[in-house]
Amino acid sequence: MLQVSIDWFLYQILGLDGQSKIVGSLNYFIYDSIKILLLLWLMILAIGFLRTYLPQEKVKSWLSQKIPGLSNLLASVFGAITPFCSCSSIPIFISFLRAGVPLGVNFSFLITSPIVNEYLFVLMWGFFGWKIAVAYVISGILVGVFSGLVLGRMRLEKYLEKDLLNSHSKEVLHGKNFAYFSARLKTGFQEANALLKKLWLWILMGVAVGALIHNFIPEDFVHQIMSSAGIFTVPLAALIGIPFYGSCAAIVPIAVALFQKGVNLGTALSFMMAVSALSLPEAIILRRAMKLKLILIFFGVVAVAIIFTGYLFNFLQGILV
């Protein structure tokens, strides 16, 4: 409905040319900006409301298990069942941080959430078959688990932007007895409004970059570069994927096209993972929550994990296909 309304306004009311790349970028920008800002506000409101029932200590204990890696696995599995892109996952990532969940565990969620989801699994099964679909889901979860473990052990909390995380919302929840439903809902509204005021400009900047990349870089250009890199196609595919922006499900047809044109399976899937989990728009939005050094470390660790996964898929291609 939202996309239909935007198309009607741009093409019928304003009379813009639907074949123009500039107009296509504008369409993309309007749609994703409204979608992400609305989703962000609703998710923060819902999480703020639920946090009045769930003390921060409980949330922290659930995602801070003593068994090594268990918290990261739980966060990655939770990410796998949430249908968000990389930018849409950031509000939950920030809310978890404000609840005291360890940074490495948060990263496991942030990494896996855009890479794996239920409708992507159905698409992967339809295009690639069940063996590749299952292997992709498992690998996406493991990328989140191991990347989160590595990042968690690096003690990077000092690179977070404290003003965004240490807001009044923590004080509101500590020791307060919510006797009325309206008081709980008010807390959710307060958190949603406060966080949206701090993030909206960064989100619009990120979506604008994504819209330009999405409409001005053709698929054939990507294929030509990947086909000429030899054994370095996997890391090159991951590097090419990072500037792009889009949901993993939207990238599946491109990955299929690359695979059908002779690009190895692991190379095509590495490109898809990098587009989903790492993007320039995501980095721009994350800059409001963390310092540039942490963003670079985060991207670097995840990129290495994706590249390793790509080579593994290339090695197993004969078994999976």
Give the proportion of residues in helices: over 70%
Please give the count of helices.
Answer: 17
Globally, the shape reads globular
Instruction: Give the low-confidence spans.
Output: 168-175
SS-based class: mainly alpha
Biggest sheet character: none
Please give the number of β-strands. 0
User: Alpha-carbon distance between the termini?
Assistant: 38 Å
Question: Summary?
Answer:
The protein has 321 residues and is mainly α. 77% of the residues lie in helices and 0% in strands. The two termini are 38 Å apart.
Describe the protein's topology.
Blueprint: H1 2-13, H2 21-51, H3 56-62, H4 70-80, H5 86-98, H6 103-115, H7 118-128, H8 130-153, H9 162-165, H10 168-173, H11 181-216, H12 219-227, H13 233-241, H14 248-260, H15 265-277, H16 280-286, H17 292-320
Helix pairs in contact: 1-2, 2-5, 2-11, 4-6, 4-8, 5-6, 6-8, 6-15, 7-8, 7-14, 8-17, 11-16, 12-13, 13-15, 13-17, 14-15, 15-17
Characterization of the model:
- The protein has 321 residues and is mainly alpha-helical.
- The chain has one domain (2-320).
- It is 77% helix and 0% strand.
- It is built from 17 helices and no strands.
- The chain has helices spanning 2-13, 21-51, 56-62, 70-80, 86-98, 103-115, 118-128, 130-153, 162-165, 168-173, 181-216, 219-227, 233-241, 248-260, 265-277, 280-286, 292-320.
- Helix 6 runs antiparallel to helix 8 (130-153) and helix 7 runs parallel beside helix 14 (248-260).
